[in-house]
Write a structure and sequence with these properties.
It is a single chain. The chain is of the alpha/beta class. The chain has one domain: TIM Barrel (Alpha-Beta Barrel), CATH 3.20.20.150. Helix 4 links the parallel strand 4 and strand 5. Helix 4 crosses helix 5 and helix 7 packs parallel to helix 8.
């Protein structure tokens, strides 16, 4: 079966951050990811991971404040120095807790900014991030984000992401394939998502999921996750994907995280 991880920046948010590790383990997850752990001492995080025998899958390079319209600044001209400082911070933290992948958000294009300048800034910054990460034996992921939720986002579909990656030319720069964002942008449901994943698999470093629309748990939207997980499982069995598949969704209104894991229990029962 797919190796499922829990995104504890979206799940178990009724608990303090450091208490979410225990909750994820109790729910049956073997791995976790989280966006921005930098306000917490890395040793505290490492201790929780060890205590609950959880593998850290992914952290994000700092991306600014979404409340201020910031969704990363790798492609924002004039923010190069801040980006480099954040890359150094993320690498240091990743090495301290034992995570091997960093997610990089491209950012939003300001209305008065030249598109080509943003693209060149993104390419230059990704080359820097990939080079620095390679020295630490880490991968950098580029995640397309849909422009319905984040208008003006610089890299919003898998085709554009692969195009940027090709220009950067770094072997450790991978695609972060979020099924929710790709369903919003590329449509087609399970069959198209699965076909895109299989086609791009050599370039994919990490897979995330949430149902669409709404970004809630599987079963709340239009994606057939039983079928999608079965297809990903087949790719794993064929030795084509050995990575994690992370639940990065917000529980439906009125539900605690523990009430949304029917998809996990159903898949485990079918796999058993």
């Amino acid at each position: 079966m797919p190796r499922f991880a829990a995104n504890i920046s979206f799940l178990f948010t009724e608990l303090p951050f450091l208490d979410r590790f225990a909750a994820a383990a109790a729910a049956g997850f073997d791995a976790v990811e989280f966006h921005y752990p930098y306000d917490h001492d890395s040793q505290d995080v490492r201790d929780r991971l060890a205590q609950y025998r959880l593998k850290p899958v992914l952290i994000n390079i700092r991306s600014g404040s979404p409340k201020l319209g910031e969704w990363g600044f790798a492609g924002v001209p004039g923010r190069e120095e801040s980006f480099r400082l954040c890359v150094a911070e993320a690498i240091e933290y990743a090495l301290a807790i034992g995570v091997s992948q960093l997610n990089c958000l491209a950012g939003v294009q300001a209305p008065d900014t030249d598109t080509r300048l943003c693209e060149m800034t993104l390419i230059s910054n990704l080359r820097y991030a990939a080079r620095e990460s390679a020295l630490a034996n880490l991968a950098i992921n580029l995640e397309p984000i849909n422009t319905h939720d984040v208008p003006g986002y610089l890299v919003s579909n898998s085709t554009d992401a692969i195009g940027v990656m090709d220009v950067v030319g770094a072997r450790n720069l991978m695609l972060q394939f979020d099924c929710y964002h790709m369903q919003i942008m590329e449509g087609g449901g399970t069959a198209v998502l699965a076909a895109t994943i299989e086609r791009l698999l050599p370039r994919i470093g990490h897979i995330q999921f949430a149902d669409a629309p709404g970004r809630h748990e599987p079963g709340s939207g239009e994606i057939d996750f039983a079928d999608l997980f079965a297809r990903i499982d087949r790719l794993g069995a064929e030795g084509k994907y050995a990575g994690w598949v992370s639940a990065e969704y917000r529980p439906s209104e009125g539900k605690h995280s523990e009430e949304t894991f029917g998809w996990l229990h159903e898949y485990e029962d079918n796999a058993g």
